[in-house]
Design goal:
This protein is of the alpha+beta class. It has helices at about 1-35, 160-170, 175-195, 205-225, 235-250, 250-260, 265-290, 295-325, 335-360, 370-410, 420-430, 445-455, 455-470, 495-515, 535-560, and strands at about 45-50, 70-75, 85-90, 95-100, 105, 120-130, 135-145, 155-160, 435-445, 480, 485-490, 525-530.
């Protein structure tokens, strides 16, 4: 019945996924068909407005030429309009002053804040015009905020303000979704890290580090879309957050590399970490002291990040290639981890190169237009690779535990064996245990039981003895099988009191076992106890001999009233 239910569940799951895929394809088909027939959404249109500008002498000015200038003056006549219209354009780290027929119309605030004295941030400028202003002369005076960076203006639009905003958001929708996915994925990885490491003795926080990197770099990508600036947020705050997230994104990757690969064993990596911490310290002190803002410190951060990122990707790629070449005939978690990480490195490297070419050649609005896709693939691949590696470590740990158990456990009784017993004695000496009690046990008549009833019954006799000793003395200490019919219990700290309690319970359990006996033997176990302060191995060995001697005296005493074998 259960197998039929599982098969039915699998079938309906496949059908559901197929329906979902087809519905998604229908939506895409509908979008393709409707692209040329936009439905009126109640918004006026807008148009590009980056042409028609001149200098003060009337010479045409190309917006692309302004990036090499520190100051500029642009002029043009206000176009004819039927209703109120908005001029929208983006500026980055420039001061803008607009005059209409010599009167001030709009001016970028000179913030003059202690932390960002020069920066005016990346912002959308929205200037409203009315029909009665048509034909008036508009003069725009522009000056760079940071000497040497040039004038950065782009995306001039003339039209309905809501339509412009909607158009920008629509164009940036994919970038927004990717950025949000990176951020939310980072939060999920940090939450998953807490879950996976809960109650773990040996914790692995590589996923937490990768998650924090994802949050930082995803937030930076989100701000770089320049959509948040439309939400009337303070551009200076967004500028500071943009710089902060970019600066903070490097160190989590260094920590991830340590958790995953143990790179801090290399002196050069330790030196890099120290340098990064010093730089972060400067990023706190310098703005507070009014010496330098984060934007001015970005060139150092970018060079530092570029070198570290290149070194990390080259080193990781080389390491994963070696893994793949060494295991090319084998399959396993290690192969999948190396393959996933190599894919992430290749995609990120390709998008980084394309981003550099694009940034230097075309657009300055979004510095992560292509890079965010590479970052998403990189983060996903490394997160998946980390989980494959973690799975491999778990399997190796289970294998180690299995081998360790075989080496230190008695197969017949599952108690510790003689090797475990000797190691524990040594531990009691080296860890300075204050008191150690040693109890020796010997099962009487094992040979006679084996000869009379067979070794299967003899094994049952050993197992019953082990159970009684473990259920009584094992509650207060550790129990071992150190020979064929010999057992030992080690009682630490308060050994005498523990022995007195365990001995009473032991006698009662042994008596009840013989009363309820359903087998052809009588269970008889001799014991001997000695206690010492384990300050040296010589003292412990003498105590072992004392306990052994007392056990043999008790064994001889029991044999006086030795009952004949039953049956």
């Amino acid at each position: 019945m259960q197998e039929k239910r599982i098969a039915f569940r699998n079938r309906i799951s496949v059908c559901y996924m197929a329906a979902a895929v087809f519905m998604f394809l229908i939506v895409i088909l509908l979008y393709v068909q409707r692209r040329g027939n936009l439905v009126d959404n109640g918004l006026e249109g807008y148009e590009q407005f980056d042409s028609g500008w001149t200098d003060e002498d009337g010479n045409p000015v190309a917006m692309d030429d302004l990036s090499e200038q520190g100051e500029a003056v642009l002029c043009r006549l206000v176009p004819e309009m039927e209703q109120d219209t908005t001029l929208v354009f983006r500026s980055q780290n420039v001061y803008v002053r607009m005059e209409l027929e010599g009167e001030l119309l709009y001016e970028t605030d000179k913030l003059g804040e202690k932390f960002y004295e020069h920066s005016s941030g990346s912002r959308w400028n929205l200037i409203k015009f009315s029909p009665d202003q048509a034909g008036a002369k508009l003069v725009m005076r522009i000056a760079e905020s940071y000497p040497g960076e040039g004038i950065m203006l782009d995306h001039f639009y003339w039209g309905d303000r809501a339509a412009v905003v909607l158009g920008v958001v629509r164009n940036k929708l994919v970038s927004l979704l990717i950025s949000l996915t990176i951020c939310l994925g980072g939060f999920f990885m940090m939450l998953l890290d807490v879950t996976l490491n809960y109650r773990k003795k040996r914790k692995d926080h590589s996923l937490r580090c990768l998650g924090f990197f994802s949050v930082c770099i995803g937030a930076w990508c989100l701000i770089e879309t320049n959509v948040l600036q439309f939400l009337s947020w303070d551009p200076l705050v967004l500028q500071a957050a943009d710089n902060m997230f970019l600066i903070l994104s490097l160190f989590p990757i260094l920590l991830y590399a340590e958790w995953t690969y143990g790179v801090l064993r290399y002196p050069v990596v330790r030196a890099v970490c120290v340098m990064q911490l010093i730089f972060l310290f400067c990023c706190v002190v310098f703005p507070l002291a009014g010496l330098m803002d984060w934007h001015s410190m970005l060139p150092v951060a970018r060079v530092f990040m570029g070198i570290c990122a290149l070194a990390f990707m080259v080193w990781t790629a080389q390491r994963n290639v070696k893994i793949l070449l060494a295991r090319k005939r084998r399959r396993g978690a290690g192969i999948w981890a190396a393959s996933a990480q190599l894919l992430g490195i290749m995609v990120l490297s390709l998008t980084a190169i394309l981003e550099l070419v694009r940034f230097n050649a075309v657009d300055v609005m979004d510095r992560a237009a292509l890079l965010r896709f590479g970052l998403l693939v990189f983060i996903v691949c490394f997160a998946v690779g980390s989980q494959f590696s973690a799975y491999q470590r778990i399997v190796q740990g289970l294998q180690y535990d299995s081998v360790h158990k075989l080496a230190y456990s008695d197969i017949l009784t599952s108690l510790g064996n003689r090797a475990a017993y000797l190691e524990r004695l040594e531990h009691c000496v080296t860890s300075q245990v204050k008191e150690l009690g040693i109890v020796f046990f010997d099962v009487n008549h094992l040979k006679r039981t084996n000869d009379t009833y067979g070794h299967d019954v003899g094994d049952m006799m050993i197992q019953m003895s082990a159970r009684i000793i473990a259920e009584t003395f094992g509650v207060y200490g550790m129990v071992f099988r150190i020979g064929g019919d010999e057992f030992c219990a080690l009682l630490e700290e308060g050994a005498q009191e523990k022995y007195d309690l365990a001995a009473d319970e032991f006698a009662k359990a042994l008596r009840e076992a013989n009363q309820n006996m359903q087998y052809d033997f009588v269970l008889q176990i001799a014991q001997g106890f000695a206690v010492c302060q384990p300050d040296s191995m010589e003292t412990v060995e003498q105590t072992v001999r004392d306990a052994d001697a007392r056990m043999y005296r008790h064994k001889a005493f029991l044999k006086k009233d030795d009952p004949p074998a039953a049956g």
